[in-house]
Amino acid sequence: MESLSGTLAAVKNMKDFDKLLNSDREYIILLDTRLSQLPSIAQYAKRANKKIIVHVDLIQGLKADEYGLEFLIREVKVDGIISTRNNVIAMAKKHKLIAIQRLFILDSHALEHNLKVIENLKPDYIEILPGLIPKIIKEISERISIPVIAGGLIRTREEIEAAFEAGAVAVTTSNSELW
């Protein structure tokens, strides 16, 4: 499996998607997309030699189950998925997609619970939200062997650098000025 690193572009609208098609970015992360748009978006991306990672939980009209993932694999031909749902991550791994488990670190209990889940599930990456807490990024990076991606509420280059210094291998942001 290829490794994700650096600042990863997460798009919420077609204007940013079009901008990425003409960029040197290898991956495009799709957020807030409608199911009916996915096949054509993926075709445009593939023509531009881009790889698509979709946030399954945010695709309007898609049920996050075995059949929904089958559609993403066979019809859309995605390269990876992001999800908070354990069953979706397990299915993605079974089908050899890049599997990114999104975790919301709200308090100590959530942190411990999430670490137990990912030890069993073993996603390819975990995305920690909010990504503004270098101390937590460092703690998680030291406790598990799964690469950490920081995301959510990252608004400055300094915050990106702090996440990298804390041990994140990548940072996701929908702020196109930071790509």
Please give a structural write-up:
- By secondary structure, this protein is an alpha/beta fold.
- The protein has one domain (6-178): Alpha-Beta Barrel (TIM Barrel).
- The protein is built from 7 helices and 8 strands; from the N terminus they run βαβαβαβαβαβαβαβ.
- It has an 8-stranded parallel beta barrel with strand order 1-2-3-4-5-6-7-8, surrounded by 6 helices.
- Helix 6 packs parallel to helix 7.
- Keywords: Glycerol metabolism, RNA-binding, Transcription, Transcription regulation.
- It comes from Thalassobacillus hwangdonensis.
- Regulates expression of the glpD operon. In the presence of glycerol 3-phosphate (G3P) causes antitermination of transcription of glpD at the inverted repeat of the leader region to enhance its transcription. Binds and stabilizes glpD leader mRNA.
- Pfam families: G3P_antiterm.
CATH-defined superfamily: Aldolase class I
Largest sheet, order of strands side by side?
Answer: 1-2-3-4-5-6-7-8
Stretches with pLDDT under 50, minimum 5 residues: none
Structural class: alpha/beta
- Share of β-strand residues: 15-25%
Q: Shape, please?
A: globular
Distance between the termini: 23 Å
Tell me, rounded to a whole number, the average pLDDT. Answer: 95
The CATH topology annotation reads as: TIM Barrel
Into which percent range does the helicity of residues fall?
Answer: 40-55%
